[in-house]
Structures are given as C-alpha cells and as structure tokens.
Amino acid sequence: MRGEALAAFVFISPWVIGFLVFTGGPLVASLYLSFTDYNVLQPPSWVGLSNYGQIFTQDDLFRKALANSVYYTALFIPMHVVTALAIAMLLNTRVRYISWWRTFFYLPAVTPAVATAVLWRFILNPQQGMVNQFLGMLGLPTPGWTTDPHWLIRTLALMVTWGAVGNTMIIYLAGLKGIPVELYEAAEVDGAGWWTKTWNVTLPMLSPVLFFTIVVGIIGAIQVFTQPRVLFNDPNGGAGNAALTYMMYLFNNAFSYFKMGYASALAWVLFIIILIITAVQFWAGRHWVYYEGEAR
Fold first, then answer.
1. Which CATH number fits domain 56-271: 1.10.3720.10, 1.25.40.20, 3.30.300.130, 1.20.1530.20?
2. What is the pTM of this model?
C-alpha cells in the first residue's frame, strides 16, 4: 500500500511542481506585489493599500475598462449561447452530410485568435471592407465597425462569437445526444409541438451544460484581451477608450508603464470580481439547473 502511494506521488509530482513554480508561486508573489510600488527596475517598496485606494477612488480608466468589459460580456454571452445552441440543435437532426456541416461550423474555433482578428479587421474596414461595400450596394447605412466608438464593443462581440461558437456547439451537441429519446416520444404522445418539447424537455435536460458554458463564458469574456488589441490595433481601445477592456488596461500598466505593483492590484481586483460573479451564478443556478436524479 505504501509503495502504491509513493508511486502515485511520483506520477503527480510533475503537475505539483509545475503548479507551484508556474501558478502557485506567481500567485503569492502577485498578492505581495499588489501592496507595493514596483517598476521592475528597482526593488518593490511597501505602500500598503495605496494601490487599491487609487483604483477605487482616483482611477477613471479602471472604471471605464471595467464598464467596457461588463458591456462586452453582456452582449457576448447571450449571442454566443443562443447561436451555439441553435447550431447544435440543427446539427442534432438527421440531415445529409452531417459530418461536413459539423466540420464547417467548428472550423472558426481552431483558427488562431490573432489571425481571426486580422481577418475581421479587413472585412469590417469602414472604407474598403466587404461588409460595408455590400451594405452600400443595398443602400443601407455603413457603420464604422472599427472606428466608431458606439460600434467597437458590438463589433468585438460579433467577431468573438464567430470564433468561439464552435467549441460551445460541440459541448451542446454532446449534451443533446445524452437526452433520452423516450422523453420526446412521451411529449409527442401528449401532443406537444416543437416549442413545447424544447422548453419542457430540451432546455431543462440541457441546463447543467448551459450552466457550465455560461459560467466559463463569463469568466473568459471578462478577461478578453487578444481580439480587441489586434482588431482595433490600439492599446488604448480606440477613440475615447471605447474598446479598452480590463485586461488591456492591466497589460498596459504592467508592460507599457512598468507599474507592476499597480497591475498586480488590478489583477486581484479582477479575481475578486470574477469570484463574486461566479458565486452569484452558483446561487442562482440552484433555481433553474436540473440534475437528473437530484432530490428537490
């Protein structure tokens, strides 16, 4: 028995060492640095809660970046979940060439984020982009997708949805395959139509999967960085900081201004925000997430 335990520790030791060196250690270090004034070139000096006080009382860009990230998340999550679920339900039907269709809808998910952002920057170019040229031919308004401050976050949500929907679609498709056919047959015997079966069978049975993707999606959306940085080609998020997300602002403080202590404080504030949002989701999930076999 002792030999088996020793073997288990040996096998998990690479992960434990990796976690301590690359995750646990930096985590503790960032917590310490968040209470210091540190610019990389000089040793950190203790300033206590000064960084946090500045964040909440003096930093207008912090509030702007947080508001932009929340606005983006509020747009992206419903768009992402509804689109992925709709595609998954379509691909769950018996249609010809289903494997080809699944590959077609999944391909954007394996495209690198930088390549996707560069591609969309050309497509949505207000002057020469294909989208505005097509809209102009139809006599429709041509928005400034990547230049108009009112459109930047909407453009970002649209682009990221296109690239991220494939992964979520696969998860939903797996969840749909796990719903017993007998439930649909019983609903049909009772005269239920498509919408009734979807509302009373599909969504309740798929609620744990929906809950998982929403929780993970919100955590990822609040931390969006690569796509807006490349799409708008501006570290400050365009005119009026309209597309300055939280992670862009944190990155600027850390690697443009070398305010590592302040950036660490921003990171821990973001961690607390995500923790609170996730806790609220788990509390709310008890009222709408259905687990088969769970006693209520």
1. 1.10.3720.10
2. 0.90
